[in-house]
């Protein structure tokens, strides 16, 4: 097994099964996704980890969702501004709250899109790409502590454990969603439910 993936499983617990990644899909994304991510697809498909807190994503299903959010989000880093709004950006990982981690083979930039706060963070890795470092810290993202992927409530307390206990885990196509959908409003535990991810994010992007 790929070493970073093995470390993730050892650290975060068993893999949650998701859709398989076919050989044809892996080949279709070769050259657009870092080889490390394609290796993970080959080994576990679009699986979940950390009790469903994070999921590897099929960019064929998530790229349009990310594209809807990028124009309406604020970019936190001025250095990232020139490339953040000029895609394409391909989601390769998402959280149980719909945050998307995306990669751009054009710019060598990795961004994180938060659909609740409408913020984009990340880093431009163009120089690293030029220096022949194709994976650019993506392995470090996936083995991060859980706190990196959690969402906090209006009192700055992490939500995932409480929602997992109350609602159960999300699946590869669902997420913990504020209902009714809200962007920029108060994030209160009691307002979350499990909803279809694609439909919920489409509503958030339209607000």
Describe this structure in words.
The protein has 207 residues and is α+β, with helices and mostly antiparallel strands. The chain has a single domain, classed as SMI1/KNR4-like. The protein is 33% helix and 19% strand. It is built from nine helices and nine strands. The strands form two sheets. It has a seven-stranded mixed β-sheet. The chain has a two-stranded antiparallel ribbon with strand order 8-9. A hairpin with a 4-residue loop joins strand 6 and strand 7. It is globular and about 40 Å long. The protein starts with a helix and ends with a helix.
Radius of gyration: 16 Å
CATH architecture descriptor: 3-Layer(aba) Sandwich
Structural class: alpha+beta
Unreliable parts? none
Give a short account of the largest sheet. 7 strands, mixed
CATH topology: SMI1/KNR4-like
Mean pLDDT: 87
Biggest sheet, spatial arrangement of strands? 1-2-4-5-6-7-3
CATH class assignment: Alpha Beta
Q: What is the distance, rounded to the nearest whole angstrom, between the alpha carbons of the first and last residues?
A: 42 Å
Number of domains: 1
Strand content: 15-25%
Helicity range:
25-40%
User: How many DSSP-defined strands?
Assistant: 9
What's the overall geometry? globular
The sequence of SSEs as H and E is: HHHEEHEHEEEEHHHEEH
- The number of helices is 9
């Amino acid at each position: 097994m790929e070493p970073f993936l093995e470390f993730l499983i050892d650290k975060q617990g068993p893999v949650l099964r998701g859709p398989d990644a076919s050989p044809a899909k892996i080949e279709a994304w070769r050259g657009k996704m870092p080889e490390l991510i394609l290796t993970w697809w080959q080994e576990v498909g679009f699986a979940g980890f950390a009790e469903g807190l994070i999921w590897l994503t099929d960019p064929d299903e998530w790229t349009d969702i990310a594209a809807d959010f990028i124009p309406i989000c604020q970019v936190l880093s001025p250095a990232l501004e020139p490339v953040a709004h000029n895609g394409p950006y391909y989601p390769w990982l998402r959280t149980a709250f719909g945050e998307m981690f995306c990669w751009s083979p054009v710019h060598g930039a990795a961004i994180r899109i938060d659909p609740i706060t409408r913020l984009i963070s990340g880093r431009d890795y163009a120089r690293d790409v030029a220096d022949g470092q194709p994976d650019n810290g993506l392995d470090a993202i996936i083995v991060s502590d859980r706190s990196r992927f959690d969402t906090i409530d209006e009192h700055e307390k992490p939500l995932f454990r409480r929602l997992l206990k109350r609602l159960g885990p999300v699946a590869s196509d669902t997420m913990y969603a504020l209902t009714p959908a809200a962007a920029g409003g108060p994030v209160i535990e009691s307002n979350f439910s499990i909803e279809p991810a694609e439909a919920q994010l489409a509503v958030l992007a339209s607000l």
